[in-house]
Amino acid sequence: MNRTTLSLIAAATALAAVTGFATLKPAGTSGGGASATAARLPVERTSLLCPQPSASDIADTTYTSFTPVVEGASGSGKAQLQAATEESADGADSSDGKKSGAKAAKPVVQPKEPGKPAAGDTSGADAPALVGLASGKFAPGWTVQETTEVAAGAGRGLLGTNCTAPDTEFWFPGASTAAQRTDYVHLTNPDDAAAVVDIDLYGKDGTLKSTVADGITVKAHASEPILLNTLAGDPQADLTVHVKVRSGRVGAAVQALDAKTGGDWLASSADPAGSLVMPGIPKDATSVRLVAFAPGDTDADLKVRLASPSGTITPAGNETLHVKAGMTSAVDLGDVTRGEAGSLVLTPTGSSVPVVAALLVVRGKGADQETAFIPATAPVGARATVADNTAKGSTLAVTAPGEGARIKVTASAGSGGGTAVSKTFTIKGGTTQNVEAPVPSGLKGTYALTVEPVSGGPVYASRMLSATQEGVPAFTIQGLPDDRGTVSVPEAEQDLSVLLKQ
Q1: What is the pTM (predicted TM-score) of this model?
Q2: SS3 of 12, please?
């Protein structure tokens, strides 16, 4: 069997592993076309990782699990979340076919049938990182939200993050080792073999040399919080963190804790690109700081625009941003939204140079300030999902940076009861709208929101959760990229019998 044959079989096997369905059909069976149109099929297996929520003894954390109803999904399956050090509740095999030796404890949340959110909670500093695995009908678009309330101390406020899929590379512009900040990179390994990770740090003058940031071992079924101050030398107000996995795969997120202005999770930026969107700056933001980084060897020159409810405007005094290659750039935009919802849009002034970026957003004044982050986010795509919404504490922001678009927003049933409701909205091109998202009728508990484009150009979205804590406007913001509920699977029409004879 030659190399070409092996490559085709490997490709088919890879597709089957992702979707549970892939075929290689003899040529000519589709009715005469040389190639068949790719079909979008529901995924049949999904992994999610939730970082350890807090080191505070007074932290209270809620987990919310939700799978949208997807046409064509399997009629069976299961989903579970358990501590990274534990075996699954039924002793199921891990992703590479081996069994963990640790005994499972009661899961913090037990996912429900598609269309129904499930919530669970934990408290204190001993809450572990979680590993989640869903299959069959539970897998397409599976979303888990981790939300933590910390009443006092460094990082007090509301901290939230979407649990993410394991990967091999992550970018975090917006981290810091300044005196008032305590930032950790949380690395979680879901597999039965150790992962080896390198962490590169880039400040305003370029690469920060470190003897301990390379070859970090993350044990199997374990989570490692890495304090950035131990990796860097002199304090850096603005830092870009690049997590690269040499072997294995991990989930990664940065927990940024500020001694004065609270804290939040900094999710990874969208992949480096010439144009970026950071959706959903709160209309009452008192300070916005943009942090950007160009990973390659070429400087980037960017137009800075704010997509507001009435159209795209240029922030006075911050029309452009020059980002030197390999160096972190930052600029204060002040109260750029001026009382209106907004999204920041970065586009090249000339040649397109890939960049990553994030916003540090502050609400409140004086001692009653709270912070959150908005990293550059991928577009909604086919559908995006976010869980743990409440009737009064959730704000959904949607922007169409180019062509206008029409979207459908669906509120699921509540975790304790209620009936799903859908509404459609029109987003004008070049604007951001805080849409009045529907609330389930008869709502009990929390609910999930799904956003689906109906027509028009690409849209970007984020969701803000807010709650006042003793006068502090606590909040957290999560982006809504495509929830990976379906995957494109082309029909291969190559006749393998021909290749086998070669």
Answers
A1: 0.88
A2: helix
